[in-house]
Specification:
single chain; mainly alpha; two-stranded antiparallel ribbon; 4 helices; 2 strands; elongated
């Protein structure tokens, strides 16, 4: 059984009281809403016209021709290395955003009560 001196019973379970007190004075929950807005932008950009999904499909087509010797099926106006750089740059930016979200969420993990 958890020690009532070190835990707090909330609507979302028993939480570590010291961590809860700390977060109540320092944690900005509105940043979670900004993460939702960022997610909407990322998903929209990824699925939109000329978004990451389209870039990856074009990149596959180009790599398939160059690496596998497949017949040319699309335009040869783009450079394979430049498109690869564009895709990897966008992916790195998304990864950086996701890493920021992890940092944002990790403090909430400290609320876990250990037995």
């Amino acid at each position: 059984m958890s020690d009532p001196e070190t835990t707090a019973l909330t609507a979302y379970g028993r939480l570590d009281k010291a961590a809860l007190t700390r977060l109540q004075s320092t944690y900005d929950t509105s940043k979670l809403l900004r993460a939702v807005e960022q997610l909407d932008r990322i998903v929209g950009n990824a699925r939109g016209q000329d978004g990451l999904r389209d870039v990856l499909l074009r990149l596959h087509g180009m790599a398939h021709v160059v690496v596998n010797g497949a017949g040319l099926s699309g335009s040869a106006e783009e450079s394979l290395p430049e498109l690869a750089l564009e895709a990897s740059s966008e992916i790195r930016q998304t990864i950086a955003t996701l890493q920021e979200w992890v940092k944002l969420i990790e403090p909430l993990e400290t609320l876990h009560v250990t037995n």
